[in-house]
Amino acid sequence: MTDRRYPIGPIALKETYSGEEIREFIRIIAEIPSEYRKRVENLSNEDLLKTYREGSWNIRQLIHHVADLQFVHYLRMKKAITEPDYDEVTMIDMNAWAHTPDSLNMPVEASLAIFEGTHTRYAYLAAALTEEQFARRYYHPARKLWFDQKQALAMSVWHVRHHLAHIDLALGNIG
Predict the structure, then answer these.
(1) Is the pTM higher than 0.70?
(2) Which of 73, 116, 123, 160 is the least crowded, having the fewest Cβ atoms under 10 Å away?
(3) Taking the C-alpha atoms of 34, 65, 138 and 79 in order, what is their torsion angle to the nearest 10 degrees?
(4) pLDDT digits (tens, 9 = 90+) for 81-108
(5) What does the domain layout of the chain look like in residue ranges?
């Protein structure tokens, strides 16, 4: 691996996804919080300060970030299927959020619980979407792309895998 910023590679969205791919995304959404919990539940405060590269967020910040942003992903999907005029995604300043007192100092348990609860609902909601709801699109101004809900789900799965790999790098589990 040459670029520790993207240990699983940069996101590469497809134009369309099959039903089988969507079911796999939903399975990952449902199950990946337990992988995060396994990685971090017994870490010391010192371990939570480890980073995957110089200048990166530490493990504690990554856990809080994933809980925050996965809730935002769930919120975006819910808004997209319930608000006909939701054409531009809700944005946050991720770096600013990663430097708030709760992200810097709070134990990770609360964020693990938020992540688990959000993903339980997120997987349930995604599994219940109709094709019409999956086709609902919105604009992402930072990426300068329009996404449908299948692509948004793919991006969300990439996001949680991406940061799990960052944690593995910080812990020395991968190279």
Answers:
(1) yes
(2) 116
(3) 70
(4) 999 999 999 999 999 999 999 999 999 9
(5) 19-171
